[in-house]
Write a structure and sequence with these properties.
Keywords: Cell inner membrane, Cell membrane, Membrane, Transmembrane, Transmembrane helix, Transport. It is built from 20 helices and no strands. The protein is mainly α. The two termini are 39 Å apart.
């Protein structure tokens, strides 16, 4: 039955069946073949998504779209430009900084890549950046958003690994997310200097205090969201609702750039995005239930532990496995497929599951802009009108740099665990 489950899943995936459908069909086939009870499937699909923490996902998607439509990204770009100044690579640095700040609002890499791309692409192309470099930088910058809280990825990880709470994961992802962003800034600047990008700047540097005043409402959003959770005023799910109402006030009352027609468009688009995410979760829950009932992942974990690998080789093997999987699968699918296998291994070696969630999510961040199926890279390549292949010479440098940061967090766990311990979450 174990072979049937994974063999059918792999066959359907290679045949071009959507990943969520492939997982659902493989799970249904095994339930039928093993006579586990077909009538249990509707209940499993429902219980797969009827979980309180998952309510945060569609609401954070709405929040991110509201801030994008309200023009918050543009004000943050002006503020970041005032901070960075005019120099080689300054626009690339600004793009990364803006993506990191927006990550503190929505936690969705593709959405923030689209928001940053809409604002930064025209100015970066005008300044002489190659289209392929621009697409790669913005996609890589957007990947930090699943590390910097609030993060949809951490919400799903906490759902599958109850021992790791959402506040602890949010706190643990903060420093690795910032380090990842700083690493990308260093690489983008070095490549810009080496290849002479942005040699001439026509626009004057924005005034610092005025740009800070204009961006203040957007910059306050992450502070309100994270500060409210830290103070205990609201849960992560309630924080998403606060973010939505705050965004509506900023867009409709402060900036007056958001109309009711725009709000309707946001609700429609967010429903489409959320339905895709939750459909993957629902169908993956069938796959997960079938495999857990059969004990498939227990067998695989026992086989891996039976190889006799010590702690460090096992950890590096897991990193390599997830890196390869991230080239072909989306983050949610990877969580549902691999976490039931990896958590028993982590428990066997006594690894902290909050730290383990951070390094797994860093792998997912790499996968978001790693060819051939990096979802952020798909978004930015479409916006820049370039092929994904043309971005590879630039993206590989950013992948190497972010992988180095991931290895640093892997071998120095306190980088991730210091903040949640200091805040009392561990």
């Amino acid at each position: 039955m174990d072979w049937l489950l994974f063999g059918l899943f792999a066959g359907l995936m290679l045949a071009g069946v959507p990943l969520a459908v492939a997982m659902g069909l493989a799970g249904v086939a095994v339930v039928a073949a093993a006579d586990l009870g077909m009538l249990s499937l509707p209940t499993n699909v429902y219980t797969g998504i009827a979980k309180y923490p998952l309510m945060a996902i569609p609401v954070f998607v709405i929040a991110g779209l509201i801030f994008e439509r309200a023009g918050v990204a543009a004000t943050i770009v002006r503020f970041a430009s005032a901070l960075v100044g005019q120099r080689r690579g300054s626009l690339a640095i600004v793009a990364i900084l803006v993506a990191m700040i927006l990550g503190g609002i929505s936690g969705s890499g593709p959405a923030d890549s689209a928001a940053v791309g809409a604002v930064m692409l025209p100015s970066m192309l005008k300044a002489g950046y190659p289209r392929s470099f621009t697409a790669g930088v913005i996609a890589a910058a957007g990947s930090t958003d699943i590390l910097i809280p609030p993060s949809i990825a951490f919400v799903i990880y906490s759902l599958l690994v109850p021992q790791a709470s959402v506040p602890a994961l949010f706190a643990a992802g903060m420093i690795p997310g910032i380090l990842s962003g700083l690493t990308l800034i260093l690489v983008a600047w070095a490549l810009s200097v080496k290849h002479g990008f942005e040699a001439e700047v026509d626009e004057a540097r924005p005034p610092f205090w005025q740009s800070l005043k204009d961006a203040g409402w957007g910059l306050a959003a992450p502070v309100i969201i994270l500060g409210g959770m830290r103070s205990g005023f609201f849960t992560p799910t309630e924080a998403a609702v606060v973010a939505v109402f705050y965004g509506l006030v900023v867009g409709m009352v402060i900036y007056r750039s958001l109309t009711w027609k725009d709000v309707y468009g946001v609700l429609v688009e967010s429903a489409e995005i959320s339905s895709v995410i939750l459909t993957v979760v629902a169908l993956a829950s069938v796959f997960a239930w079938g495999s857990n009932t059969l004990g498939t992942f227990d067998h695989l974990a026992a086989a891996l532990l039976g190889t006799g690998l010590s702690e460090i080789p096992m950890l590096l093997s897991i990193q390599l496995l997830l890196l390869i999987a991230g080239m072909f699968l989306d983050a949610i699918s990877i969580y549902f497929i691999f976490l039931p296998l990896l958590v028993p291994i982590a428990t066997h070696f006594g690894w902290d599951l909050v730290w383990f969630g951070v390094i797994i999510t860093m792998n997912m961040a790499l996968g978001q802009f790693h060819p051939p199926l990096g979802v952020n890279l798909m978004v930015t390549c479409r916006m820049a009108n370039v092929t994904m292949e043309s971005t590879v010479p630039w993206v590989l440098w950013m992948i190497a740099a972010m992988a180095g940061t991931m290895l640093l967090v892997t071998f120095v766990p306190d980088i991730a665990l210091w903040l949640p311990r200091h805040l009392g979450y561990l």
